[in-house]
Amino acid sequence: MNVIAQIFVVLAGVFHLAVFAMESLLFSRPSTYKRFLVKDEAEAAAARPWAFNQGFYNLFLAVGALGGLIWGGDKGHAIALFACACMAGAGLVLVASDRRMVRAAATQAVPPILALVLAAVL
User: Is the pTM for the entire model greater than 0.90?
Assistant: First the structure.
């Protein structure tokens, strides 16, 4: 995999690590849960279990992307690109499910999409 694609894999992985932290570790903070369109503490309390679980999905995707790069070689890069494909798909599902989340979906999906495209064409 070329270096430019690897940079976008790293960006995607680091972003998903940050989202893991927000969803699984910091979700009880109003400044955090409001980023996910949760209005108040009552809604946050109801959403906290799914947010905690969803955070770990993001952690595992980040581990796949970053771990695949660290592993290296064809197999490692395949794992990294598979994780990127999953990230890109999740971003598309996010915007399809709620158009208000287009900015978050783009932030989530654009780096892994660029990694996939650049890995394929360069």
Answer: yes
Q: CA-CA distance, 48 to 68, in Å (whole number)?
A: 30
DSSP labels, the chain: --HHHHHHHHHHHHHHHHHHIIIIISTTSHHHHGGGT--SHHHHHHHHHHHHHHHHHHHHHHHHHHHHHHH-HHHHHHHHHHHHHHHHHHHHHHHHH-GGGHHHHHHHHHHHHHHHHHHHH-
Cβ neighbors of 58 (< 8 A, separation 6 or more) are: 16, 17, 19, 20, 23
Over range 46-60, report the average pLDDT: 98
Half-sphere exposure of 110 (CA within 13 A, CB side): 6
Please tell me the total number of residues recorded for the chain in this structure: 122
Instruction: Using alpha carbons, list the distances in angstroms from residue 46 to 25, 28, 33, 36, 43.
Output: 16, 11, 11, 13, 5
Structure tokens at 42: 């009552």
- pLDDT of res. 51: 98
